[in-house]
Amino acid sequence: MGILDSLENSPELKGMLGQLGAAVIPVVLGQVMGNGGQGGLSAIVAKLEQAGLGEQVKSWIGTGQNLPITAEQLQEVLGSDTVKQLAAKFNIPVDQLSKVLAQQLPAAVDGASPNGKLPHTA
């Protein structure tokens, strides 16, 4: 899983989800990003860039500070149906899921791109 390991211990994540269970979000993020959190990384990055969020993506992959993405932007990129399906599958409110994913995705991409480059297997 690599890039998702740190999410399980994220204080922000645990605080927001409370009784919903912080262990669920790494699994959701893994599904958003593809097989085991690695297989779909290039695909999600491409989707974000096509949606006009290239500057944010570059900041996550680069070695500097990560620019934020909003829950609304992420939901638009993934598609509201996809977000609704994920939320229903894991029994998490859609707005809460979108908000947490928007907070955690930059760190996940950043963690998956050591030295400012996506791995070849992404």
TrEMBL record:
Q: Which SUPFAM superfamilies does the entry link to?
A: YidB-like (SSF140804)
Tell me the Pfam families matching this sequence: YidB
For this entry, the protein name equals DUF937 domain-containing protein
The opening ranks of the lineage are: Bacteria, Pseudomonadati, Pseudomonadota, Alphaproteobacteria, Hyphomicrobiales
